[in-house]
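ingest -> validate -> predict -> emit
validate: passed (alphabet ok, no gaps, 193 aa)
predict: started
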Amino acid sequence: MISHKDIRDWLFKGLALEQSLEQIEREGIALRPASSPAAVQRVIPLEDFSATVRQAAMRAMPAYLAFFCLENSVRELVVDRLTEKHGSDWWNTCATTGMKKQVGDRKIKEGENRWHVERGAHEIYYTNFGDLKALIVNQWQVFEDLFPDQNWISTRLDELEASRNIIAHGNVLDDRELTRLRLYLQDWTRQVG
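emit:
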């Protein structure tokens, strides 16, 4: 016969396990399948939205997460490589005049909305995805050991930008685009490490 103590111990072990799993997920390690509403509900409650919107969000989530990681990985690579080659002031010497103006305008606009969190401490966080490609191509000598040629990186980032913009504007990629995204992410991680 199961005692009350056994049931209580089992219950507390289950609760402790659930808390541990939640902590692991907060650290970015997926334990639940992307299709599990519980994975999203931990981030923000969605029950106030229609079933259609929630279902679309669940379909968009894997692509959004992938693009978040990819875009920030490219940003890290650009910052690391250009800092190593040109020093901490690389932005002033490597960014184009157009990039500097666009970033300056964004920072001014963001400064007017002080209630809102800033994008990041460095100018790289105010650039467009396409600007990352331009920085790599314009400073090719800093990146040429990583990529087969400029066309390889340009083509991939251009094609990824089209899909990224769909996701960034609240839309869902179809299966064909998701397949392309998976392949290009694999290419990126194999190429860059």
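Residues 51-192 form one domain.
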